[in-house]
Amino acid sequence: FALLQEFGDAEIATLIAPRALVVEYSQAPEITNPRGDLKTPGFQSVRTEFDRIATLTARGFQPALLVSGRGGTPVGPGSPEAVEWFARQFGVERMKPLSGRIPSDRRKSFNPDGRQERQVKALERCVQSLIRASESARQQFFLYKVMPELADETWSMQLRHKTFPPDRFIEGAKWYRRYFREEVLGVFDEPALGPNPRTRRIYDNPGWAGYEVVLDVWPEVFAWGILLLPKDLKPGERRPVVVCQHGRNSVPRDVIEGDVPYYHNFAARLADQGFITFAPHNLYRGEDRYRWLCRKANGVKATLFSFIAAQHEQILRWLATLPMVDSSRIAFYGLSYGGETAVRVPTVLEGYALSICSGDFNTWTEKVAATDQRFSFMYTIEWEMPYWNMGSTFDYAEMAYLMVPRPFMVERGHNDRVGRDQWVAHQYAKVRWLYAQLGLDGKTEIEFFNGGHTINGAGTFRFLHQHLNWPPRD
Questions:
Q1: pLDDT, tens digit, 9 for 90 and up, residues 414-433
Q2: N or C terminus: fewer CB in 10 A for the chain?
Q3: Is residue 243 assigned to a domain?
Q4: Considering the domain boundaries, does residue 321 fall inside one?
């Protein structure tokens, strides 16, 4: 993560200086995989990178040699020229000729598979022990650093405890919000273009009209989505907006029409209630195509959410310019990868007045890396999910802390296989506890329902009406 911001191969080679370095241009194993291919690089690219070493160190500071065959063909590995030059760096002037016989293993019963398995299992046990210790590490990193008094475990028989004013936590969380966006999600420092909105009308429902919208973000990067405007808007009236976010491999239309089982037209149903809704498109479509983008972005200290957060930042700026929008009442409601967005984007973009995470809230560290849970990402196709050092800094509770003092809600189906109720409840209990300690317990909720990976649209709709100050309609 972030390697290419500071290091290419030449920069890494300088870390060896003043010790000697030999680079042998050899044929690499050829591997083709959906996650990417490994191939032997062209010799000219190797030569160019090797020559850069000399531009980064003082002349003569580091002995270095590039070995290749005639005309830049691969050699070795272990070519005579590379081995002899390497040996000379240890004072070996002459080497004995190599035997013509290929060495063989004379052990009769040795099998390296068992040794390799033991080594892999040892690494696994190490990682799993770090996962078990990660909850304490996160508490020390964030919550107890901002408000050490919250770590007090003195036995109590008080009927009611005094709450803490939230101001100090809100102020202390600002650094963590910035850290989360810059060091975990990654942020591009290129300034945004003007939104330059382009729209076309694509829906004419009896209760609302729908417009497809395209907004510029950066050169060759844009945001798009579908805006639903209730037809009973009065001149000069400003209404709340609900940003309705689809999940993986979906598109904005899926949250509006067709009664897609995941979404049940929830954006259209909210528009029927008089809310303005906007259904943006997020990048996670096309399976491995967006994962390749994420992998490439990691090298420059970025992730998918570096793009997504910037797109939503532009969406919020544009929505605030619309005469019918109350920019202080813009909510976020997302399912699945949209629920993942709900704890990553509104937490860093304070233009969102509240957030609802549906079908995603979890114990993230175990979800990503646990090997004893069959539904963790260790056993699924989502190989883009790890983030740099997130297990020691932010799980879902810590991400939700960044919403304070704004309202935050979780929608959870008992039979949603993205997690288990006890994992969800464990993380949410910490959120509920913090809100209560700060006197804000009326601003957070969780709704369990006896369903699966889908929008329920019951308690969440009530939550939106309550906190966006918009009366429900029959």
A1: 999 999 999 999 999 999 99
A2: C
A3: yes
A4: yes
